[in-house]
Design goal:
Layout (H helix, E strand, L loop, with lengths): L2 H21 L1 H4 L14 H10 L1 H9 L8 E5 L4 E5 L5 H6 L5 E2 H9 L1 H4 L9 H10 L3 H19 L8 E4 L1 H16 L8 H22 L23 H12 L3 H31 L5 H15 L3 H6 L1 H13 L5 E5 L3 E3 L2 E3 L4 E3 L2 H5 L2 H4 L10 H9 L25 H18 E5 L10 E3 L2 E3 L5 E6 L7
Parallel strand pairs: 2-8
Antiparallel strand pairs: 1-2, 3-5, 4-12, 5-8, 6-7, 9-12, 10-11
Length: 472
């Protein structure tokens, strides 16, 4: 390279650096302390450290946060994310009006949703209203159908003969089971048992997450809705697809929009429920002393109520266990995007700032969870519930319980997901002996990919049928 080329390249790099420094987000957020380097160039090194080990990076850098700081900013390769230093301040973010902080815009950017989920075509959240007004109110009617599907799904996914132990990888099989039982409610029979359909929805969910990360660094550049054709004797199925079709007729939406909403619903249902359940199962198998107490509670509830929602509601230890697993193993997510300038707790937040929570601080807060907050205690929520008189279950949200978000934009489908996961865990413990398939007997370490925490996809379990099933 000639000397002149070197000079031109150096000047160009210097000019780009000057523009970033003067006009970029780093300049606009200079009044907020940084985790890692604050320099717009050196911050990429900090971003790499964060992406490779988010929990470790936050724990180390949190020690250096000035004691009077109310917010900090965390680097990534494309932007800064601002977090409150005190989880109690998180409520101020979720209470901010939608005209200033948009949860939808944050999801759009995090998932590159216009490109991956076609959110520009299904922007109106009609499916949210369906979930809240119909699905959540129909859980009692739906649970026996879901249990019926759980029985068949487990039998087909984990084929066993005799009393011998058999090893299974669990990552994909759990996704298949969740996809199938979710779609018993989403599209009904027989499509929920169509392997090609279930695999398409699982692959779609995985590809959305992959493409969201790819697109983040790239510059931006089935059934008819005509009921009359079905005849007078047509009996409407009791499923989410039918409710979505009714909504489409009401709002004048096309068949394509119905399909997109079904894909969006499957994405939200399969991906998060599978990860949460798999984490809970691995956590239980790393603490096998809790299997018998859980089985005792589950079998008593089933004996009294059968496989119904009433039985699930009686499984209080299982509820506490699942919530504690969520607390211990979770991931980070963007909460809202500032779409206007605003002030939070006396700190100016400029338009375009991504806001999030520090789940490590929230979920391990000693003031909220006790002095042993770093330890796993499946009875924790039961004890806290007894002390406070307030319910703390899988679906509970607060500034210190953020798995499903918090505030008016918390996940509306969490009630169905909670019933699904409890039903799956109850069925597995009643009908199978289960243990980790590993030499050490220790839980395989989770994988972190950016903000996303996922169970080790290589994790395996050993299964055999239980010789005696008292609840049947």
């Amino acid at each position: 390279m000639s000397q002149g080329s070197v000079v031109i390249l150096s000047l160009t790099a210097g000019y780009v650096y000057f523009l970033i420094r003067t006009f970029g987000e780093t300049k606009r957020l200079s009044h907020i302390p940084s985790l890692g380097f604050s320099d717009p160039i050196l911050s990429y090194w900090s971003a790499l450290r964060y992406i490779l080990d988010p929990p470790g990076f936050l724990r180390r850098e949190w020690q250096r946060v000035p004691p009077d700081a109310k917010f900090v900013k965390v680097p990534s390769f494309t932007r800064w994310t601002v977090m409150p230093t005190d989880s109690g301040q998180y409520s101020e973010i979720v209470r901010a009006p939608d005209r200033l902080v948009s949860a939808g815009k944050a999801i759009d950017e995090y998932l590159q949703a216009v490109y991956t989920l076609h959110m520009d075509e299904v922007r109106a959240p009609h499916q949210v209203a369906i979930i809240m007004n119909i699905l959540n109110r129909s859980l009692g009617e739906l649970l026996p159908l879901v249990h019926q599907e759980v029985v068949l799904a487990f039998e087909e996914t984990f084929p066993l003969e005799g009393d011998d132990w058999k090893s299974f990888a669990i990552s994909r099989p759990i996704m298949n089971i969740v996809g199938r039982i979710s779609n018993r409610v989403i599209v009904g029979l027989p499509l929920c048992r169509n392997e090609e359909y279930i695999n398409a929805n699982i692959d779609f969910a995985v590809e959305v997450m992959i493409m969201a990360h790819v697109l983040a660094v790239v510059p931006a550049p089935f059934r008819s809705t005509e009921e009359a054709r079905l005849g007078e004797d047509y009996e409407k199925p009791f499923d989410f697809l039918e409710w979505t079709m009714d909504s489409a007729i009401k709002h004048g939406e096309s068949d394509r929009q119905i399909v997109l909403r079904m894909m969006l619903t499957n994405f939200g249902s399969i991906h998060t429920t599978s990860l949460t359940f798999t984490n809970a199962l691995l956590t239980l198998l790393a603490h096998t002393q809790y299997i018998d107490p859980l089985r005792t509670e589950i079998e008593q509830a089933i004996k009294e109520e059968g496989w119904t929602k009433a039985a699930m509601d009686k499984m209080e230890l299982l509820e506490s266990f699942m919530k504690e697993s969520q607390r211990i193993v979770s991931q980070f997510s963007e909460t809202g995007l500032a779409i206007g300038d605003l002030t939070l707790n006396g700190v100016f937040i400029p338009k375009g700032t991504m806001l999030a929570s520090n789940i490590l601080d929230s979920h391990f807060s000693k003031s909220a969870w006790g002095s042993d907050s770093l330890e796993f205690d499946p009875y924790r929520c039961l004890k806290l519930q007894k002390e406070s008189g307030k319910p703390i279950g899988i679906t509970t949200t607060s500034p210190f319980v953020l798995t499903f978000g918090h505030g008016r934009h918390a996940c509306p489908g969490r009630y169905f997901a909670a019933q699904e996961m409890k039903l799956m865990m109850a069925y597995m413990l009643v009908h199978y002996d289960v243990k980790l398939d590993s030499r050490t007997g220790e839980r395989p370490k989770n994988w972190w990919i950016g903000n996303n925490c996922m169970p080790n996809p290589r994790a395996k379990i050993l299964l055999r049928r239980r010789r005696k099933v008292e609840s049947e």
